[in-house]
Amino acid sequence: MTIKTVQSENLWTETPLVYSSHISDIIGCSAYLKLENLQPSQSFKYRGISKFAQQCKDKHGPSVHLMIASGGNAGLAAAVVARVLEVKCTVFLPTNVSIDTQQALRKHGAEIVTIGEFYSQTLAALQDAHRLTRHLRQAKRILVSLVPAYDSPVLWDGHSSMMTEMKRQLPRKPDAIFCSVGGGGLIGGIMQGCKKVGWDEVPVVALETTGSNCFYNAIAINTRNFTSKVPIVPSIEVEDNSPYTVEILEEYNIAIPHMKALRSRAASLGATSPAPGVVRMAVDRPGGIKCACIPDEMAMHTARLFGDDHKILTELACSTTLTPGYNREFLLRILGPTFSALSPEERKEKCLVFVVCGGVKISFEEMMEFEEIVAAAQVQSYWSVQIDGEETQLPKQ
């Protein structure tokens, strides 16, 4: 049986939503895991990128050449779907992407170009190459489609399919949905999906690592550091020691931060700026968005705990999502005083969903390294985190 014969109209897989007794016991309410690591490319990105690639082939035919700039997981999604669709694929990668990730891309037939220190530089290199070779492509009648890694309504629509599945799979409407954020593709899909299924009032919690938190900064600067429910476009002037510069986008009437540097090991969260359309959706959303940032070491610690409990390896971008499930105090601080005031019996009736976004940037060797880093960080008895503009310290659990 070939790959083609088992494909439905949509190329992505309907992933299971499983109850986690381990996390439920820790936080005192029902915790469910949406296992996006089971997609063909091992991350949620396959949903939106496969939809985009299908549209490219439908429009341009089987000779279309897909090109994408990626930190790894979006590129792998493009390579896997290109193999299924039998079209050509080239992936531009930052120079620090691991050999393992490069080998995975080549295994699926992708050509690779390594250039740039950060994703933004790699994307600029791809765009330059596309512009400079335009006349050559026209002469040879080569059809190239640039595939976005996260900033596209088509991608968000594809990612939103997980919410349609979730509504069928859950016994009732969730009380909160947790996800990690890099450039905003996943949370854009979650917000769109919530709108489709009537969950616009369900709180969505966006988690990032400190030092790779462009979305957190975007929400902060457009809401006066989380104090205004009405979006307020700020001045582009920032202090010299600010970790970002600010750009005002009139199309969205929104301010977008551009991180000057990325200081996190969570490479899949390594966008220097978020998708403007997603930021606009977030500040306009009736149910709002709750934002939190954690240190890398906390994500590393959670990755080990989750691996021990569920026998699943997760890269840091994924384990970041799961940190509130392994620290009850963190969860209560995020969900606020109303949730915290519930009795144990009332809390048991609550239902939370954690999107296990997947990703291939993890190995046993890295997990061992994480354990050493976490052990060295034990000299401090607390984690320093940021939640909606406030820095707080959490006891290590």
UniProtKB/TrEMBL annotation:
<keyword id="KW-0456">Lyase</keyword>
<dbReference type="GO" id="GO:0006567">
    <property type="term" value="P:L-threonine catabolic process"/>
</dbReference>
<dbReference type="GO" id="GO:0009097">
    <property type="term" value="P:isoleucine biosynthetic process"/>
</dbReference>
<dbReference type="GO" id="GO:0006565">
    <property type="term" value="P:L-serine catabolic process"/>
</dbReference>
<dbReference type="Pfam" id="PF00291">
    <property type="entry name" value="PALP"/>
</dbReference>
<keyword id="KW-0663">Pyridoxal phosphate</keyword>
<protein>
    <recommendedName>
        <fullName>L-serine ammonia-lyase</fullName>
        <ecNumber>4.3.1.17</ecNumber>
    </recommendedName>
</protein>
<dbReference type="GO" id="GO:0004794">
    <property type="term" value="F:threonine deaminase activity"/>
</dbReference>
<dbReference type="InterPro" id="IPR050147">
    <property type="entry name" value="Ser/Thr_Dehydratase"/>
</dbReference>
<feature type="domain" description="Tryptophan synthase beta chain-like PALP">
    <location>
        <begin position="12"/>
        <end position="254"/>
    </location>
</feature>
<dbReference type="InterPro" id="IPR036052">
    <property type="entry name" value="TrpB-like_PALP_sf"/>
</dbReference>
<comment type="similarity">
    <text>Belongs to the serine/threonine dehydratase family.</text>
</comment>
<dbReference type="InterPro" id="IPR001926">
    <property type="entry name" value="TrpB-like_PALP"/>
</dbReference>
<dbReference type="GO" id="GO:0003941">
    <property type="term" value="F:L-serine ammonia-lyase activity"/>
</dbReference>
